[in-house]
User: Which sequence fits this backbone?
């Protein structure tokens, strides 16, 4: 499914999601798991009823006295696509040379689409809602990795959600942040200027134990090692012959 078509599907799903919270209409998902983070409530929405849905996160920012109105939620979608799909060039947000690997000018191999958008927390009086499309791109999570692509993609999606719960959404350059998280999962060189790099790579480097020094302290002389009991260097063992 191309990004433009997928976005239409997601917008329709958001409207059904918001309607289900205000009416008795069937919910377009199975369950929701929640976890509070410094900047908002992270909701893992399981069982999204759209074709090829893999992972769905909704981050509801914490309300503040300075902003009495409820801010828009951040939606993070992970969807499966066919590995032979061609990277959709219809949106400027979707172009990313590091997203996959092309061979001899052939089609870009991609396995999943990551989509970020902001949407109203509730439906308006006329039954509509406001949204803002932030970012969409297709990625090849298969690569040369032994781990299944679906597992790699879920890890990346979860890291995006955690980052959104730790850093202000409006301050993030999301194309670069998602690209850095993709590089982390696929074991590629990082983008040091991103928050994701500082949060995971620097944190991991700082937690590594320092190797022990080879020098011995002068207050602790090297202990003498006694020769084995039956060594020829042991003066207590002598060879004797009796006639």
Assistant:
């Amino acid at each position: 499914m191309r990004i433009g078509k997928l976005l239409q599907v997601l917008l329709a799903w958001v409207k059904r999601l918001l309607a289900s919270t205000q009416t008795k209409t069937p919910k377009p998902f199975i369950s929701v798991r929640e976890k509070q983070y410094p900047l908002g409530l992270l909701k893992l929405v399981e069982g999204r009823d759209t074709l090829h849905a893999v992972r769905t996160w909704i981050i509801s920012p914490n309300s503040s006295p300075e902003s009495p109105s409820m801010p828009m939620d951040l939606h993070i979608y992970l969807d499966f696509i066919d590995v032979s799909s061609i990277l959709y060039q219809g949106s400027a947000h979707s172009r990313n040379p590091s997203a996959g690997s092309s061979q001899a000018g052939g089609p870009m191999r991609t396995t999943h689409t990551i989509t970020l958008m902001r949407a109203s927390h509730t439906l308006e009086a006329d039954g509509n809602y406001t949204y803002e499309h932030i970012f969409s791109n297709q990625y090849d999570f298969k690569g040369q990795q032994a781990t299944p692509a679906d597992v790699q993609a879920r890890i990346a999606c979860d890291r995006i959600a955690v980052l959104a719960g730790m850093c202000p959404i409006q301050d993030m350059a999301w194309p670069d942040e998602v690209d850095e998280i993709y590089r982390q999962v696929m074991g590629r060189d990082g983008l040091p200027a991103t928050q994701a790099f500082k949060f995971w790579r620097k944190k991991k480097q700082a937690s590594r134990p320092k190797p022990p020094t080879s020098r011995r302290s002068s207050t602790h002389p090297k202990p003498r090692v006694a020769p084995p009991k039956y060594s020829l260097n042991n003066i207590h063992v002598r060879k004797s012959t009796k006639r």
User: Anything to note?
Assistant: Residues 36 and 42 are 6 Å apart (CA to CA). Residues 3-198 form one domain. The first helix runs from residue 3 to 22. Confidence is low (pLDDT under 50) at residues 84-95, 101-106, 227-243.
